[in-house]
Design a protein that fits this description.
This is tRNA uridine(34) hydroxylase. It is a single chain. By secondary structure, the chain is an alpha/beta fold. It has 3 domains: about 90 residues, Alpha-Beta Plaits (2-Layer Sandwich), CATH 3.30.70; about 120 residues, 3-Layer(aba) Sandwich (Oxidized Rhodanese, domain 1); about 60 residues, no CATH class. The protein is about 30% helix and about 20% strand. The chain has 12 helices and 14 strands. The longest helix is centred in the first third of the chain and has 15 residues.
Length: about 325
């Protein structure tokens, strides 16, 4: 019998009215700290979007209190077992919106959103003809893992997605559109926006990739790679039947699922690279970042000017 791990990671969101997000955030942080939870929770007048970790007992108490609050009645928690905390600290922050789309005319998912498809329905829909699968996440999330045949919009962040859709409107006309994201929150708004833009057949993966990977029937099938998550774990498996690595080392192009942040603090770009590539390229995505005066890899490893110069020479020589 499998051993139950001592910690849990909760992922959840809910579009609901929160009258005073600033006051709520302050009180909610106190509550989370009293339970000794760690995580990141965003609060807006339109609702709550959070992920936090704690012991089984701590997370049970948190879910109990949330479920007893009329504002969050029916909230769904996606639960992962863990060996330890997935975060270093606890943050609860008020925000203008839960996901940053910055639409001139905002979408209320409670009034307009795409059709919800459960994992088995989404699985079948992906195999149908005349269907377009759109990944509603950031580029680095897609690079680590995605559904087979999914389109990677040429964007760096979620808020650029509407412009990309408008630029590619002809490609999508008359198609059945399927969209997905990590836990479902981004698709609630994005699919609603697609409907408002005039796309007639729009569906979203209910509960997101995380729910799809846990479904006992589909077992994550048709997913390649891993799912990027915004905590210390970085990545979680999805496909229970086979593991296909789609990530590629930024420097060598070899299969890779190890993310690091560029050592230039002003860049901080997420790059896939092996430990060998990290050392060879000073954990920097470009020459400019390698020679940046505050390169964190150089500082961390206390490299001398001579050592850095020798490393740069090797790179230039293609060694």
């Amino acid at each position: 019998m499998a051993t139950i791990k001592p910690y849990r990671v909760l992922l959840y969101y809910m579009y609901t009215t929160i009258e005073n997000p600033e006051e709520f955030a302050e009180q909610h942080l106190e509550f989370c700290n009293s339970l000794e939870l760690k995580g990141r929770i965003l609060v807006a007048t339109e609702g709550i979007n959070g992920t936090c970790s704690g012991t089984v007992e701590q997370t049970e108490k948190y879910m109990e209190v949330m479920n007893n609050d009329p504002r969050f009645a029916g909230i769904v928690f996606k639960i992962d077992e863990a060996d330890e905390h997935a975060f270093k600290k606890m943050h609860v922050r008020p925000r203008p919106e839960l996901v940053t789309l910055r639409l001139e005319d905002d979408i209320n998912p409670k009034e307009m959103t795409g059709k919800y498809l459960e994992p088995t329905e989404f699985y079948e829909a992906m195999k149908q003809e005349n269907t377009v699968i759109i990944d509603a996440r950031n580029d680095y999330e897609f690079d680590l893992g995605h559904f087979k045949g999914a389109i990677k919009p040429d964007i760096e962040s979620f808020r650029e997605l509407p412009d990309w859709i408008r630029e590619n409107k002809e490609t999508l006309e008359g198609k059945k559109i399927l969209t997905y994201c990590t836990g479902g929150i981004r698709c609630e708004k994005f699919s609603g926006w697609l409907v408002r833009e005039g796309h007639e057949d729009v569906s979203q993966l209910h509960g997101g990739i995380v729910t799809y990977g846990k479904d006992p029937e589909v077992q994550g099938e048709l997913w390649d790679g891993q799912c990027y998550v915004f905590d210390e774990r970085i990545a979680v498996p999805v496909n229970q039947k086979e593991h296909v690595i789609v990530g590629k080392d930024h420097f060598t192009g070899e299969p890779c699922e190890r993310y690091v942040n560029c050592a230039n603090p002003e860049c901080n770009k997420k790059i896939l690279c092996s430990e060998e590539s990290e050392a060879k390229h000073l954990r920097a995505c470009s020459h400019e970042c390698r020679v940046h005066p505050r390169n964190r890899y150089i500082v961390q490893h206390e490299l001398t000017e001579e050592q850095v110069a020798a490393t740069l020479e090797k790179i230039e020589a293609g060694k």
